[in-house]
Amino acid sequence: MSDISSPPPLEDLEFRGGPTEDVTRFLAAIKRAAVIQGRHSDDEWMISYIESCLGGDAMAWFDELGPEVTTDWRSLRKALLHRFHKPDSYTAQSPIAAAPPATTSPQLYVCML
Questions:
Q1: How many CB atoms lie within 10 A of CB 77?
Q2: What is the 3-state secondary structure (H, E, C) of 65-86?
Q3: What is the model's pTM?
Q4: Cβ neighbours of 93 (radius 10 Å)
Q5: pLDDT digits 0-9 by tens, 44-54
Q6: 100, 92 contact by CB (below 8 A)
Q7: How confident is the model at residue 87, as a pLDDT?
Q8: Distance between CA 64 and CA 103 in Å, rounded?
Q9: In a domain, 51, yes or no
Q10: Does residue 66 fall inside a structural domain?
Q11: Of 22, 47, 60, 111, which has the fewest beta carbons less than 10 angstroms from its beta carbon?
Q12: Angle CA(33)–CA(34)–CA(35) in degrees, nearest 5?
């Protein structure tokens, strides 16, 4: 007798696009669920799961998207991040975050008068 176990049940996820919701955490939970279900390479499954988890403003937004976004996992992920990602207020105001990357060699500026 073989021991075939079914994947664990999915979490009850909901993303409404509200001001206190974190879309990056939502997407991470979707990806984690896909891995647990053995569907991490199944874009169609992940898109269907996302759609089933949306409500409120996020669902209204999704319903307005074209098939070029709603049938492609990467496009949908980018669109969700573009529409619902809220920059971290600390990072956005931090002078370190705004500083240009360090260079390995000094830069020479020439001013011609």
A1: 19
A2: CCHHHHCCHHHHHHHHHHHHCC
A3: 0.70
A4: 10
A5: 999 999 999 99
A6: no
A7: 79
A8: 44
A9: yes
A10: yes
A11: 111
A12: 90
In the block, residue with structure tokens 């809220």: 86
What would the two tokens of residue 60 be? 């209204």
* Dist. CA 47–CA 30, nearest whole Å: 9
Structure tokens, 20: 């206190």
Would residue 109 count as lying in a domain?
no
In a domain? residue 63? yes
CB 43 within 8 A of CB 76: no
Average pLDDT over residues 66-75: 96
Which among 36, 46, 51, 37 has a CA at the least distance from the CA of 74? 46
Q: Which residues are CB-contacts of 69 (< 8 A; sequence separation ≥ 6)? A: 75, 76, 79
Token pair recorded at residue 38: 């053995």
Q: Chain-centre distance of CA 44, in angstroms?
A: 16
Task: Quote the crossing angle between the two packed helices 23-36 and 73-84, to the nearest 10°.
Answer: 150
Write the DSSP symbol of residue 29.
H
Q: Which residue range is the domain that position 66 belongs to?
A: 23-89
The residue type at 101:
P
Give the chain's domain count: 1
Spatial contact of 58 and 84, defined as CB atoms under 8 Å apart: yes
